[in-house]
Amino acid sequence: MIQTFTVEVEQEEDGRWLAEVMDMPGVMVYGQTPDQAVAKVKALALRVIADRLEHDEELITIDTIAFATA
Fold first, then answer.
1. Strands of 64-69's sheet, edge to edge?
2. Structural domains in the chain (count)
3. pLDDT digits (tens, 9 = 90+) for 21-64
4. Rounded CA gap, 48 and 42, in Å?
């Protein structure tokens, strides 16, 4: 099964970039560039998924993970 997560990126008024995984509440990070923010949010999302799998919280079987930037 392929699980695709949507990453939304926007620039804040102070110049920082915010990236958020829309399907995972609370998974959002800031970066100095859009690419940095996306890389950081992907890493955070993978850590959250790993934690859920370790604690038997993930209810679906994931074989492949994909990220799509919105």
1. 28-31, 17-21, 2-11, 64-69
2. 1
3. 998 999 999 999 999 999 999 999 999 988 888 887 765 666 78
4. 10
d(CA 68, CA 65): 10
Range of the domain at 54: 2-69
Q: What is the pTM of this model?
A: 0.84
Query: Where do the H-state alpha helices sit in 1-70?
Result: 34-54
CA distance 55 to 70: 30
Say whether 66 sits in a helix, a strand or coil.
strand
φ/ψ (deg, to 5) at 19: -120, 135
